[in-house]
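Hi again,

Forgot to attach this to my earlier email, sorry! This is the prediction with threonylcarbamoyladenylate bound. I've pasted everything inline since the attachment limit keeps bouncing my files.
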Amino acid sequence: MATTAVAVPKHGDASDPILQRAAAVLRRGGLVAFPTETVYGLGANALDPAAVARIFEAKQRPLNDPLIVHVAGDDLDGLARLDQLPDPGRARQLMAAFWPGPLTLVLPRGARIPADVTAGLDKVAIRMPDHPIALALIRAAGVPVAAPSANRFGHVSPTTARHVLDDLDGRFDLLIDGGPTPIGVESTVLDLTGDEPAILRPGGIAREDIERALGAPVRVARRAADGAAAMPAPGMLDRHYAPRARLHVCAGLDELLARHAEHAAAGRRAGALLTDAQSEACAGIGPQFVLGAGLAEVARSLYAGLRALDAAGVDAILITDVPRGGLGDAIADRLRRAAAP
Ligand code: TXA
Ligand code: MG
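Structure tokens for the complex follow:
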């Protein structure tokens, strides 16, 4: 019972008829799901509180979980008050280094951004996505686009158009199918409003790369560290990015194989998410989803793998932990949250 229209852009620049149609949907207050370089987003005109309210309703997302505003240029006039930052130069430096790209900056909220977007916070999260369809859509709409990941709240983020429909079909107006998203985990969220920058959520831009750009160490915020009334980054909820089956993160392949055997002995089906090399070493383990080789490939296919094993009806999903550093920080963060009870 598919009810949401799905369209594939013809050439993908702002004059594309499909993107023109999507832009018109946004301008009249509708919801458009679209690809970014990280995951698919569910977008609305960020300047229209009624449209923004529809996002929360469609996702069944709590109203105290603020949205990221997506822009197609670095003119933030009315969107953010860089002049109110302790160090405006730092923000400019990071935008020059990483935009467009998977770095979301938390900045003092500008007067044009309704409080509904930011869950009442006086800070707004802004990013410029590095995806031709997302950029063309925002330009064609002529407004900033508020967009969370296009999944049901708490579920695994979507990296294909099919994932979006599986979660939200019929709950929004138009889905732009741009194929699988290249990075596969969400953007890094960096709060610049304090005296020192703080990573609220590790993501597509590595902490090391931010540190290199700033020439200074960057800390990772711990949960509830600042005691804010609204959740500082609800990506920080314990159980988030979660499949239906119970996920277990194993220290190594020996533990994974032992747990797989334990499940089988108890009459339960466990699925495994394996790298290329692991899959070759344990061809007899099933069902298994092969993630690829290296952190970038694992990041790109992780959410598809979690969804595929869920769809296969397994009781449990097993994966080995990843090395920290680079994209490993984001992958490890998502695994930890997805595995939380
Ligand atoms: O890669 C991404 O960031 C994707 C694509 C669609 O852009 N978007 C995404 O949005 O992951 P969402 O809503 O699923 O996650 C946004 C995160 C949440 O953890 C949220 O709490 C945090 O950003 N955030 C948004 N506004 C904030 C604010 N004003 N202050 C602190 N954190 C904020
Ligand atoms: Mg999300």
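The first helix runs from residue 17 to 27. Confidence is low (pLDDT under 50) at residues 224-230.

That should be everything now.

G.
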